[in-house]
Amino acid sequence: MTSKNYYDVTDWSVGNPYEDIGEVINSIIADIKSRQTDTDVNKGGKPGAVIYIPPGDYHLVNQVVIDISYLKIMGSGHGFTSSSIRFNTSENEWADMHELWPGGSRILVDIPPEVDEEEYKGAAFYIERSGSPRISSVEFSDFCIDGLHFIEDGSVETAPENTYTNGKTGIYVASACDSFKITGMGFVYLEHGITIYHADALTIHDNFIAECGNCIELRGWGQASKITDNLIGAGFKGYSIYAQNFGGLLITANNVFPRGASSIYFDGVTRSSITNNRLHSFYPGMVVLKENCSENLVSSNHFLRDHEPWTPFLGIDNGLDDVYGLLYISGNNNTVIANHFSKIVNTQNIKPLGATPVIIRIVSGNGNYISNNHVVATDVHAKTSDSCFSAQVDALLTTESSEPLTVTTVLVEKDSLQNTILDSGSDAQIVMDKTVNAFRATPTPGS
């Protein structure tokens, strides 16, 4: 027996999904609402539905508006492939490429950008519902949302396809939500991949979110959510992971690619964990804890800061200098333990020239605990290349260095007191007032 609550976008009576899948999905949601009207039938009443998107290319002209719970929209493949590599390859070479565009179950966002338009209007999927209870258990799984092109914005001297600007968002959740899931998805060439306000028990797991201006943004406030096991990489003007006024956020086992202005940015986040992530950046400010971020755990992460090796993005950065710190902390009682930091740069490119780069910088707050962190800092003359893949692999595999690089492993500013710094640098590598902070140096060979 075929369920009335399972829909295939290619087998629906309203609209053409290849021309405008937005019209089709909105029509399906209207059908679900018209059939599921009772709130209590045999202790049920509104089971929701599944909407299936088979592999194929589906243009989206009309925004999908979701205001029902228990809805799953799923495809059969996230279909991610690099659009940035293609757009930065000569068009003369395109004819020899095996494929040119992302694939799988792919939605092409054709919503036209409008000047000064409200941000949510550029979203492929817009979720909002007022009243009680909060909208719950909306799921997105196994399809690709492709913003197609970036546009000239006048902000940098780079090709329009490298600006990370187009006013488009993949998924935008505007109202308080509970138990949402985003899994196995692909997001590419969107100014904002995922933007969610007021999330509770949110799962963002096993997605490929890259070549977006911003990848994951948790705004407003939220609690008890997780961002796990994703492949992520934002553009130089945005965040790979951003969280605002959150409590109980778990960020674990993500592989965060370079070029995002910050790998992880916390704004007023408390009692949350950043653990077991691989973080790679071309700029300082890799992980930022600002606006009284307190009682957070940063543990067992690998931080790699090196130089941009790909020629289309040479000379572009996030505007921060090397004394800002790879890990920037403003807040109380945070724990930073057992992290590995690799700073692999050319001294001639340090900003400002001649400055001593900082690894961990505690700007303000009290009672922070920094222990057993290992810092490797070397002066390397990095190579550049027109090939994105080979350039980055070569840079990652290069461990030869001309000489060690002098760094400050931990800098505690005067506005931060009563911190404990243990085994995270030699006496010469730690800069702080030892009369108001506790300190134990890492032993040095031969000492």
UniProtKB/TrEMBL annotation:
Gene3D superfamilies: Single-stranded right-handed beta-helix, Pectin lyase-like. SUPFAM superfamilies: Pectin lyase-like. It comes from Gracilibacillus kekensis. It comes from the Bacteria. The lineage of its organism: Bacteria, Bacillati, Bacillota, Bacilli, Bacillales. GO terms for molecular function: transferase activity. This is Inulin fructotransferase (DFA-I-forming). Residues 159-305 form the Periplasmic copper-binding protein NosD beta helix domain. Keywords: Transferase.
